[in-house]
Specification:
The complex is a heterodimer of chains A (303) and B (155). With 303 residues, chain A is an alpha/beta fold. Chain A has 9 helices and 9 strands. The model of chain A has no long low-confidence stretch (mean pLDDT 94). Chain B has 155 residues and is mainly beta. Chain B has 2 domains: 13-94, Alpha-Beta Plaits (2-Layer Sandwich); 100-150, Aspartate carbamoyltransferase regulatory subunit, C-terminal domain (SH3 type barrels), CATH 2.30.30. Chain B is built from 3 helices and 11 strands, in the order H-E-H-E-E-H-E-E-E-E-E-E-E-E. In chain B, strand 4 (80-85) and strand 5 form a beta hairpin. The model of chain B has no long low-confidence stretch (mean pLDDT 89). The chains are: A alpha/beta (303), B mainly beta (155). At the A-B interface, helix 4 of A face loops of B. The complex binds zinc ion. Residues 107, 109, 112, 114, 136, 138-139, 141 of chain B line the site of zinc ion.
C-alpha cells in the first residue's frame, strides 16, 4: 500500500494501471460518498485555481469534507511559520493533505513530517504527478491501451515538468516519442539519457508537423515568453508552434491532442471542434483520476 | 624521518593522509573534529610525491565508523586512512563514495526546499567520486562536482 503520492517515480507500472482502472470505475459512477466521515485538507501555498477545483470536486464527489487555504500570491516563501509546523498542524485536523507549494521538494518534506497521506499537487518546477496520471488516463481511455503508442511531444520540452513526468511514466509502456521543440527548449540531456538507458525509441525535430500523420497522441505544451532571452525569438517561435486544423487532415482517426491547459496560442481555436481535440475532456478526466488517487491513499483497494 | 618531525607519530588512533591541502580544513569539519576531545595534530603543504603538496591529520584514540570516514570521499577521494595500534599501521582503508549522503552537501538548486527551510539534505550517489553526481532526495535535481558545496558540520 502506497502512503503518499509525491513523485511519479513512487508509482510502479502496476500502481499506475490500478489507479487508472479505479478512475474508470469512478467515471461510470462519479458520485460515491464512501468517505463521508473523512476530512481532506487542500493547502495551496501558491494559487492554482484549476488544480484546486479539480481536487476539491474529487473530494466532494467522494463525500469528504474539504478544509484548507489558498495563498493568492507566492508570499509564503517569506512568511514566518515553518512548513513543518503548518503541516504538523494540518495533519492533526485532516485525514489526507493535498498540497501545492512553489519550492521544489517541499511536498516530499511535508510527507515526512505529516502523520496522514500527502498528495503532491505541484512542487515548484519538480513534479505534478496527478497531472501525469490524468494524462495517462486520457491516453488509455482514447487509445484503449498504453502500450506501443506513437507520441509527439511539442513545445517547451526543457522546462515543462508535465513533459518530463509523462515520458518517465510512459517509459513503462514501450512508446515511440517524437520530441518537437525550438532549439532553446530542447529536451534536456538527462531525459534523453533516461530514455536511452531504458531502450525507448525517440527522435527530435524542430518541425511541428513532423510525423504528425503517424502519431497516436500529440501532447502540446505551453511555450512561455519568459523562457526566452530574446523576445524577438519568442515572437518568431510562437507562430511556428501553433497547431491549426489544416495540419490535421491526414491524421490517424484515433489521434488525440492533449494539453495540460491553460493554453496560450499553441493550439488555434479552429482545432477545438475537431474530433482530434481532447484537451477539455482531458481536464474532466482529472476529477476521476484524483478520486482514484484519494480513494487508494485513504485505503480503498477496490470499488 | 623528516616527516616525523613535522607531524609527530601517534600511539593509537587514525591517520588521514594525502589530503589535498586546500581541503584540509573541510575534512576536519566533515569529520566533526572541531568539538572533538581527542588529541589532534595536523600539518598541511607538506611535500608529497603523489600530490606535490598534501595535508595530514592524526587523531589519537579515535576510530571512525566506515560510513563516517567515507563522507570525506566527496572532497578528498584519494585520501588514505591508516588505523594505528601501538605505533604500527594495523589497517588501511581506501575511501569509497557512500550510496546515501545525509547532510554535508548543499543542494545546488536554489529553489530546493533544503535551501529555504531547516531540512537536512539527503542525496543518492548516482556517479561516484571523482566525477560525482548526487541526486537530491527532495527536489530530484542533480548536484555535480563543479557545484558541490559542503555544509559546515559543527555539532
Ligand atoms: Zn534539492
Amino acid at each position: 500500500m502506497l502512503k503518499h503520492l509525491i513523485s511519479i517515480h513512487d508509482y510502479s507500472r502496476e500502481d499506475i494501471l490500478k489507479t487508472l482502472e479505479m478512475a474508470a470505475a469512478f467515471e461510470k459512477r462519479p458520485n460515491q460518498p464512501i468517505f463521508s466521515k473523512k476530512v481532506v485538507a487542500s493547502v495551496f501555498f501558491e494559487p492554482s485555481t484549476r488544480t484546486r477545483l479539480s481536487f476539491e470536486t474529487a473530494a466532494n464527489r467522494l463525500g469528504a469534507r474539504v478544509i484548507g487555504f489558498s495563498e493568492t500570491t507566492n508570499t509564503s516563501l517569506t512568511k514566518g511559520e515553518s512548513l513543518k509546523d503548518t503541516i504538523k498542524m494540518v495533519s492533526n485536523y485532516a485525514d489526507l493533505i493535498v498540497m501545492r507549494h512553489p519550492l521544489d521538494g517541499s511536498t516530499r518534506y511535508a510527507s515526512e513530517v505529516s502523520s496522514v497521506p500527502v498528495i503532491n499537487a505541484g512542487d515548484g518546477s519538480n513534479q505534478h504527478p496527478t497531472q501525469t496520471l490524468l494524462d495517462l488516463y486520457s491516453i488509455i481511455k482514447t487509445q484503449g491501451d498504453l502500450n506501443n503508442l506513437k507520441i509527439n511531444v511539442v513545445g517547451d520540452l526543457k522546462y515543462g515538468r508535465t513533459v518530463h513526468s509523462l515520458l518517465q511514466a510512459m517509459s513503462h509502456f514501450k512508446p515511440t516519442f517524437k520530441f518537437i521543440s525550438p532549439e532553446e527548449l530542447r529536451l534536456p540531456q538527462e531525459y534523453r539519457e533516461y530514455l536511452s538507458e531504458r531502450g525507448i525509441r525517440f527522435s527530435e525535430s524542430k518541425l511541428l508537423t513532423d510525423n504528425i500523420n503517424n502519431a497516436d497522441i500529440i501532447y502540446m505544451t505551453r511555450v512561455q515568453k519568459e523562457r526566452f532571452s530574446d523576445p524577438i525569438e519568442y515572437e518568431r517561435i510562437k507562430d511556428v508552434y501553433t497547431l491549426n486544423s489544416s495540419m490535421l487532415k491526414e491524421c490517424k482517426p484515433n489521434m488525440k491532442i492533449l494539453h495540460p491547459l491553460p493554453r496560450v496560442n499553441e493550439i488555434a481555436q479552429d482545432v477545438d471542434s475537431s474530433p482530434h481535440a481532447y484537451y477539455f475532456a482531458q481536464a474532466q478526466n482529472g476529477v476521476f483520476t484524483r478520486m482514484a488517487i484519494i480513494a487508494s491513499l485513504l485505503g480503498r483497494e477496490n470499488l | 624521518m623528516e616527516k616525523q618531525l613535522k607531524v609527530s607519530a601517534i600511539k593509537d588512533g587514525t591517520v588521514v593522509d594525502h589530503i589535498p591541502p586546500d581541503q584540509l580544513f573541510r575534512v576536519i569539519d566533515i569529520l566533526g573534529l572541531i568539538n572533538s576531545m581527542s588529541q589532534i595534530t595536523f600539518g598541511t603543504n607538506l611535500d608529497s610525491k603523489r600530490l606535490g603538496k598534501k595535508g595530514i591529520i592524526k587523531i589519537s584514540n579515535k576510530f571512525f565508523e566506515i560510513d563516517d570516514i567515507n563522507r570525506i570521499a566527496l572532497i578528498a577521494p584519494h585520501a588514505k586512512i591508516n588505523i594505528i595500534h601501538d605505533f604500527e599501521v594495523v589497517e588501511k582503508h581506501v575511501l569509497s563514495t557512500p550510496n546515501r549522503i545525509k547532510g554535508i552537501v548543499k543542494c545546488m538548486n536554489p529553489m530546493c526546499i533544503t535551501n529555504h527551510q531547516e531540512v537536512e539534505t539527503l542525496f543518492t550517489t548516482i556517479v561516484e567520486s571523482p566525477q560525482i553526481k548526487l541526486l537530491c532526495h527532495y527536489c530530484e535535481k542533480v548536484t555535480d562536482k563543479e557545484n558541490l558545496k559542503i555544509i559546515s558540520n559543527r555539532h
